[in-house]
Design goal:
Elements: E1 2-4, E2 12-15, E3 21-26, H1 32-39, H2 44-51, H3 60-66, E4 74-80, E5 90-98, E6 104-111, H4 120-134, E7 139-145, H5 149-157, E8 161-164, E9 170-176, H6 190-196
Parallel strand pairs: 6-7
Antiparallel strand pairs: 1-2, 2-3, 3-4, 4-5, 5-6, 7-9, 8-9
Helix pairs in contact: 1-3
């Protein structure tokens, strides 16, 4: 997968290993309709792995909530056709939400089978972690079905470790982010050193 930049923040064109060009960008309200349409094309197991329970459809209200993240605590990216929002098919959605404590953030990623197995989940996860670091989050976590071995393997390869989840059938994957190192104090200006010396 290769990327070419010079785009607005968090926008990038990516060429997948199958040669398909997609645009990774922040989610937009106009994406609600295409996300609802794409949801009907997902396989039941894909839905269960993302939402942790079966769902037959994504309601208009759920799509609206998904596409209008709170900029103070939420961040969501889509991998879409390089078309205007509202027209582009959505192949993947990645979201992270900072908890009320301001230090933990929960992620969720859904990559449809049309673009699965091409490194897109890894790419999106790295973007979520980068955003979390910028917000001084110390711990990124997600609850994953025990049967979702590919997601667990991806998380482990990126430095996540496993913890017990609060619900049977789930495993929690956690990435601890070290706090940023304090910057060393600046040395005094040279003219002050010479005056004092």
């Amino acid at each position: 997968m290769s990327a070419r930049n010079r785009m607005p923040p968090w926008h990038e064109h990516v060429r997948l290993s199958n040669g398909r060009d997609i645009l990774i960008r922040p989610i937009r309200p106009e994406d609600a309709g295409p996300i609802q349409a794409t949801f009907t094309l997902l396989e039941p197991d894909e839905i269960r792995q993302r939402f942790l329970h079966p769902m037959k459809e994504l309601s208009h209200k759920q799509a609206e909530q998904l596409t209008r993240p709170d900029p103070r605590r939420d961040f969501a990216l889509v991998a879409a056709e390089p078309l205007p929002p509202g027209e582009a098919l959505i192949g993947a959605v990645a979201r992270i939400c900072i908890d009320a404590n301001g230090k933990d953030a929960e992620f969720a990623i859904l990559v449809s089978h049309y673009v699965n197995g091409m490194g897109l989940g890894r790419h999106l996860m790295r973007r979520l972690v980068r955003w979390a670091k910028g917000r001084k989050v110390l711990r990124v976590y997600g609850d994953v079905l025990e049967s979702n071995l590919p997601m667990q393997a991806l998380a482990q390869s990126l430095g996540f470790h496993r913890e017990a989840a609060g619900e049977a059938g789930l495993v929690r994957v956690v990435l601890n982010i070290p706090p940023p190192k304090p910057k060393p104090p600046l040395p005094p200006p040279a003219f002050l050193s010479s005056v004092q010396g």
